[in-house]
Amino acid sequence: MVKSSRLLVIPLFLFISLLFLRIPNPNPNPPTGLGIESLSSSICNPNFYPPQWQLRSDQLTVLINGFSESRLPLLQKIARSYSSFPCVHSVFILWGNSSTPSTLLETLNFESLGAPIYILRNPSSSLNDRFLPRDFISTRAVLICDDDVEIQDSASLSFALRVWSQHRRKRIVGFFGRSHGFELETGAWIYTVHPDRYSIILTKLMIVGTEFLYLYTCHSPKGVREFVDKVRNCEDIAMNFIVADRTGVGPVLVEGSPRDWGDTRNSEGGLVVDAALSSLEDHRKRRGGCITEFHKLWGHMPLRYSYGVVSQRVREQGLCRKLGVVVPCDQFASLSTDRP
């Protein structure tokens, strides 16, 4: 049954500079929220948050980074879709555009198909705010995602959550993998897509342990968050540094087909955007600069390579000769019933 409601403003204590909007919540006690522009003693006090053993691991909390008002219709669609997934406990839209009128957010209508949906106005437009620890998160994992990417089937997200659990909740799991490398000619680190290895999972869709939000905010090396604010980019690379440095292992890439509405390689009317390739080259150059800077700030390179993609489908890998053609043994299985 579809539940719909208009957004309601939930009053907060005066010291919290955060607008919290709610879309129907079955819980009688809504989360209090957390949004403080400076790193106060409360934010970095671990006792402020529930202990790990109290958090549930069978579901995750979705944190969608929202900024563009033009994407609000798409954002509503994506949030509604996530709310229907059995593995989703709750959906939070972290609104980072400080110029958006509160009246606009208040008049938005969302439909929840199960899990409650909330809108939180972040304390600033900093990309670091998407990783703020939140005392209302009641799951051991969070799905960090953008407002223009969606997983269109619940099975893929449920599978990714199981993969995260099976890796002892230590590794970042996601659907978009990238790699770092070192360029001897320039003596600089590069950001690239490598055909057989990866070391970075993008926040387009990233599952990460809740405790790493705290570590990112309160225990990043000095200068990391400031650099992210300076370049307004690369917060996802910094999170990969944080996790790899703490765990000593690389991320896990899972198979899936998420819809990426914001990719510059999307085309309109069958025509590829001309600026896509040059834009991509400039983007990779800037991201390589981020890796180089983070390497300096960390004092070493914590990123670790991973290999292969985890698939939720088990396929026959043996080859058989059928009707004069060598094919996978399960192909055209109706032609032969002989199988060991």
Automatic annotation (TrEMBL):
Pfam families: Glyco_transf_64
Domain annotation Glycosyl transferase: ranges: 60-311
UniProt KW Transferase keyword: yes
Keywords of this entry: Disulfide bond, Signal, Transferase
InterPro entries: GT64 (IPR053318), GT64_dom (IPR015338), Nucleotide-diphossugar_trans (IPR029044)
SUPFAM superfamilies according to UniProt: Nucleotide-diphospho-sugar transferases (SSF53448)
Gene3D superfamilies: Spore Coat Polysaccharide Biosynthesis Protein SpsA, Chain A
Position of the signal peptide: 1-26
Taxonomy, superkingdom: Eukaryota
GO MF annotation list: glycosyltransferase activity
A single Gene Ontology CC term: membrane
PANTHER family recorded: GLYCOSYLTRANSFERASE FAMILY PROTEIN 64 C3 (PTHR48409:SF1)
Similarity comment: Belongs to the glycosyltransferase 64 family.
Name of this chain's protein: Glycosyl transferase 64 domain-containing protein
Organism field: Taxus chinensis (Chinese yew)
